[in-house]
Amino acid sequence: MPPSLRRLLPTGALLVGALLTLPGCVLHSSKIARTREAFAQQHPKAQFEREVMLDLGPLSLWATDGVLHRFIDDASFEKARPYLRYLHRAEVGVYAVSGLPSLRASAGATLLPDRLHEDGWKTVVHVRDAGEHVWILARPGRGASPLRRLYVLALRRDELVAARLEGDLDRLTAHLLGEYGPRLPFLAGPASRKTAPSTPASPTEAPDSTEAPDSTEAPPISF
Predict the structure, then answer these.
(1) By C-alpha distance, which of 192, 193, 145, 199 is closest to 172?
(2) N or C, which end of the chain has less CB nearby within 10 Å?
């Protein structure tokens, strides 16, 4: 996972811990459970044991301001608070994983369950290294807000984290770009990325296959 993305996790972990105490917080999510089943079907030799599961509805998210402030310092509270107004629902699942096959970069196409794409989700970001794969998937919405649903999946050899978000996510993305844009350039899609001028490769120089996108992934969507 990129360091820029990893720096956001401590605030997120505190936020999830605080949300556990809120009214309307359900410790089950059928959608996240179906995603776990999809991973289990895709990898029949692996085990996915539930550790945490949350389904946070509008009441939980509305009540967050008062409860969250009791758990974290003022600086972290002020950093997390602006993003909550864009969310209408948040579902989170954490699973302990054992028996998973290789997590090498070339295996990314077979690690993600086919069912997710069959259900209409499109991969917009896939970040991978030797020990972890992170996918961000989107499902288009209707009306003035074309981006209403995001699915974030992080898979390691010993853990699967799934987070499904619903709300005004195009506005949330714009807010994130304004705050973290220089550190999270992939959020803006390929059109806004700054790339260095290309240099023709020498005839004897083979292309770097590790930089090529997975052929099964949908083209990135510009937010």
Answers:
(1) 145
(2) N
Strand positions, DSSP E, the chain: 25-26, 47-56, 87-98, 122-128, 132-140, 147-156, 159-167
pTM above 0.70, yes or no: no
Average pLDDT, the chain: 66
CA separation for the pair 20, 102 (Å, rounded): 34
What does each C-alpha distance from 174 to 4, 139, 219 come to in angstroms?
17, 17, 20
Q: Count other Cβ atoms within 10 Å, centred on residue 24.
A: 14
Coil, strand, or helix at residue 171? helix
Q: Are residues 91 and 163 in contact, defined by beta-carbon separation less than 8 angstroms?
A: yes
pLDDT digits (tens, 9 = 90+) for 8-40: 444 444 444 444 444 444 455 678 888 899 888
Residue holding tokens 């939980």?
A: 60
Distance, in Å, from the CA atom of 125 to the CA atom of 21, rounded to the nearest integer, reads 32
- What is the per-residue pLDDT across 83-138, written as a single tens digit (0 to 9) for each? 677 778 888 889 999 998 777 644 555 677 777 887 888 888 888 877 888 888 88
What is the full DSSP assignment across 29-88?
Answer: -HHHHHHHHHHHHHSTT-EEEEEEEEEE-HHHHHTHHHHHTTTS-HHHHHHHHHHHTTEE
Contact 111, 127 (CB under 8 A): no
